[in-house]
Amino acid sequence: MSYQTLIGKTAPAITLKNYDGESFTFTPGENGLPAALFFYPQSGSYGCTKQACQFRDAIAEKDTFKPGKVQIIGISPDSVEKQKTFVEKQKLTYPVLSDIDRETFKAYGIGKGMMGLVPVARVTFVVDKKGVVRDALDATMNYGAHSKFVEKWLDKLDKEDEAAAGESPAPVPTETATADEPTPAATS
């Protein structure tokens, strides 16, 4: 299964250990908020640290990322102990989950990255408030594209909510972002 097959479908539920060792469950659509799930190769590596910190900074600096507006979740195949060290060192303010057996990676259709050179790909999913996967970005080398991708989607989802409150619903994009930048449908 490819991660792209999830687009337009309900996101798989997740129960994994958080960095603090506690069980964390993500049930898509349960809290009525959109979610960004970003899967990454290795806590503490250069690109993964930059990516995680970009999400941390977005939560602190941008209204669209504020708590109560979106749920941000990071997931890697690292141990709980490594996640704890990573979260504390980088002062991350969102759940960082340990998928050491890569079961959630499999459930989301994420395989190796960079033509098999990286053990797991860097893929970010945007899940709407109803729990439906709206789009995904696979950009293993371009760690900086992920928070921008999510921000564009959050803006789009806000506009759709505003339109739904009015008269005409916004169109739903059908293209998938798989390169360094979101597809044209994801940027409009």
Tell me roughly what share of residues is in helical segments.
25-40%
Query: What are the low-pLDDT stretches, counting only 5+ consecutive residues below 50?
Result: 180-188
Tell me the CATH architecture.
3-Layer(aba) Sandwich
Count the DSSP helices.
Answer: 5
Indicate the radius of gyration in whole angstroms: 15 Å
CATH superfamily: Glutaredoxin
Task: Just give the CATH class.
Answer: Alpha Beta
Distance between the amino and carboxyl termini: 28 Å
Account of the 3D structure:
This is thioredoxin-dependent peroxiredoxin. With 188 residues, the chain is an alpha/beta fold. Helix content is 30%, strand content 18%. It has helices at residues 46-61, 80-90, 103-107, 145-165, 184-187; strands at residues 14-18, 23-26, 35-39, 71-76, 96-98, 123-127, 133-138. Strands 2-1-5-4-3-6-7 form a 7-stranded mixed beta sheet, covered by helices on one side. The longest helix has 21 residues, at 145-165. It is globular.
What are the SSEs and their pairings?
Layout: E1 14-18, E2 23-26, E3 35-39, H1 46-61, E4 71-76, H2 80-90, E5 96-98, H3 103-107, E6 123-127, E7 133-138, H4 145-165, H5 184-187
Parallel strand pairs: 3-4, 4-5
Antiparallel strand pairs: 1-2, 1-5, 3-6, 6-7
Organism: Galerina marginata (strain CBS 339.88)
EC number: 1.11.1.24
Family: Belongs to the peroxiredoxin family. BCP/PrxQ subfamily.
Write a brief structural summary:
With 188 residues, the chain is an alpha/beta fold. Helix content is 30%, strand content 18%. It is built from 5 helices and 7 strands.
